[in-house]
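Lab meeting minutes (informal)
Scribe: AK
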Amino acid sequence: MRIGIIGAMKEEIDYFLKEGTSFTEEKKAHLTLYKGSWHGHQVVITRCGVGKVNAAITTQLLIDIYHVEAIIFTGVAGALDPELEVGDLVVSTSCIEHDLDASALGFERGEVPMFEYSSVFSADEGLVSLAYDAAISLNEGYVKKGVVLSGDQFIADPEKVVELRERFDGTCVEMEGASVAHGAMVNQTPFVILRSISDKANGEAAGSFETFVEQSAVRSSKIVESMLSRMK
């Protein structure tokens, strides 16, 4: 199976490059892509950069040029669900672009205007189950399935946390996952987003992020590796 693995930051793909073997390196657009065989699958690993546009570009490139059959996004996020602590893991059931707002035209917040598909991008159930089971088996902290919210904003405001949780029933918030989901969905490519909590998206979020980003990213990456070892 050909699998695309995306992280937004260097920390989010470093684990794969250290643990994997015999990757070849290619340059496309602004991306450095690493191709190779890992756990019996052909993988393409890349760092997309921060933000929704970078994530969307990368997703389409992986589908068009590398013909990936599934996409896994791995990385860190801020918690919206008060049950979540730093180090816990969220497996996406769906993704929403929380900063998309055409409400002045009569659309709901998060709704893509004049779009023939749902604006709630549902993850592949098989990949969700695989990721959840892999996380539970590794005992890498509390694991929760839920809605991943994405926007071109770093959330560090307790009032915004409450608003996002209540409006969208969000579990965690980050800056790329829904764009990956959007691109994967319109191309009918299965996807799942894995996010390890690096902060509580509150007034202490920036400091917590800087402190815990690396270890949270490694935790998410280990789940991906376990997934690959279980995939047929």
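Next up, CB showed the second protein from the same session:
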Amino acid sequence: MKVILLQDVKSVGKKDEVVDINDGYARNFILKKNLGIEATSKNLNDLKLRHQNDARLAAERLEAAKLLAGELASKSVEVSIKAGQDGKVFGSVSTKEIAAAAKEQLDYDLDKKKMQLKEPLKHIGTYLVPIKLHPEVTAELKVIVKGK
């Protein structure tokens, strides 16, 4: 019997796969526990439409990430922190402060976990901070660290 899996089933297949399994196993386990549905022409068509919709949504997310990356490339954020005379700051500037400054100054909600700082910013100056907006898109935000 051909079945469309609604969830991952160990040693059978992954979600949204069409698998061919024994009739008894399908009726008594897969269908009874709502782990899958029978692969009728209507259900196969629904699966195809769902895949097309998912692909369209993924393309829209990628396009939105590219637009945001283009906008962020031309913008900069200023972060003020207490610093000594030699340009070394007391403490450091982390992604949390950068995300808060971006929200306040540019009105962008950037996830601090997506910022890829190799190490916290410990000197006054200008830095380019890479931000992973999408698995295929990485933007760079200019961060200006100023002393108080």
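CB comment: DSSP finds three helices and eight strands in the chain.
No objections, moving on.
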